[in-house]
Amino acid sequence: MSQIPPSLANLRGAVDLSSLVRPPTTQAGPGAPGSPAAGRPPATDASAGAVPVPALVLEVTDQTLTAILDLSNSVPVVVEFYARQTTSALASVVESYGGRLVLARVDAAANPQMQQAFQAQVVPTVFAVVAGRPLPLYEGDLPDPDLRDVLEQVLAFAAQNQVAQTAVVPEGAGDPGDPGEPVEEPLPPHHQEAFDAIERGDYPAAITAYRTAIAQDPRDRLAVAGLAQVSLLNRLAHVTAADLRAAAADAPGDAAAQLAVADLDMSGGHIEDAFDRLLTLFPSLTPEDRNEVRTRLLDYFEITGVEDARVIAARRRLTALLY
């Protein structure tokens, strides 16, 4: 059921996207792959009154999230997760604001990392991103007056945070000969291979690609986090939440059953619930099961981000249980 939040102010920081942030952008020459001509949102100049964009409605992927976060420092961005082959009634409404908002559309099935990071449980689901901070807005569809009311709240919140520039589509935007646009650095080959596999739903191939990257460089933290994320997606690919929760309720002391439900909690953004479930179970387990739970928790820490306060607290609790 659609729901309009009574206030956007109390939603600040509701989602952590740090696990998807990519390296800084670099300059590219004319016609470089990944330039705005290829549909990537550009970096912005916060000092300028107008922010150039290739379009007011953009298709965004796991790989281009960083550019959207950058853009949201200048112009509020509305993010719409949609099902494949659907059109957006939201697009025309956003365009009617004349560049005061930009719409980033995300094919949820093709971009599981973004869907997981935003905790988008159903499609369509709509968020705003202001100054890099995501704000959950609503699920489903809204009638035009209610939708405009939500967008006006977004604009008001953005203005309070000094994010009130205007996006403009320059003449010739998308021209392959447009030189000097900042673009994202290409992913390392095995990372790109993993992303491509995730987009086509081939999680085992993505796992293999990340493992190869780690074998070549054990200090590759992005590959370690990526492996943890795609392994989680793979474990949940062919199961149902109801079956997993029923099995866990029937066997509260079974490590495998509780690990499966912890995976559900993580995929749904209930990070503290996942941590607490496994850490509470830990003392009663056999040494073999303890090792499996410890390994899974370390994966969850990578997915969440090792500097996250919830990870720091859970890691401290795990250390106390181990020693």
CATH level-1 class of the largest domain: Alpha Beta
The CATH topology of the largest domain comes to Glutaredoxin
| Overall 3D form | globular
The number of helical elements comes to: 12
Record keyword descriptors for this entry.
alpha/beta; Glutaredoxin; disordered N terminus; single chain; 5-stranded mixed beta sheet; 12 helices; 323 residues; globular
Q: What's this model, at a glance?
A:
With about 325 residues, this protein is an alpha/beta fold.
What does this structure look like?
With 323 residues, the chain is an alpha/beta fold. It has two domains: 9-184, Glutaredoxin (3-Layer(aba) Sandwich); 189-322, no CATH class. Helices cover 45% and strands 12% of the residues. The chain contains twelve helices and nine strands. The chain has helices spanning 65-71, 89-95, 112-118, 144-160, 189-199, 203-216, 221-235, 241-250, 255-267, 271-281, 287-304, 309-322, and strands at residues 25-27, 50-52, 57-59, 77-82, 102-107, 125-130, 133-139, 166-168, 182-184. The strands form three sheets. Strands 3-5-4-6-7 form a five-stranded mixed beta sheet, sandwiched between helices. Strand 4, helix 2 (89-95) and strand 5 (102-107) form a beta-alpha-beta unit. Helix 9 runs parallel beside helix 11. It is globular and about 65 Å long. Mean pLDDT is 79; it is low at 1-48 and 174-183.
Give me the secondary-structure topology.
Blueprint: E1 25-27, E2 50-52, E3 57-59, H1 65-71, E4 77-82, H2 89-95, E5 102-107, H3 112-118, E6 125-130, E7 133-139, H4 144-160, E8 166-168, E9 182-184, H5 189-199, H6 203-216, H7 221-235, H8 241-250, H9 255-267, H10 271-281, H11 287-304, H12 309-322
Parallel strand pairs: 2-8, 3-5, 4-5
Antiparallel strand pairs: 1-9, 4-6, 6-7
Helix pairs in contact: 5-6, 6-7, 7-11, 8-9, 9-10, 9-11, 10-11, 10-12, 11-12
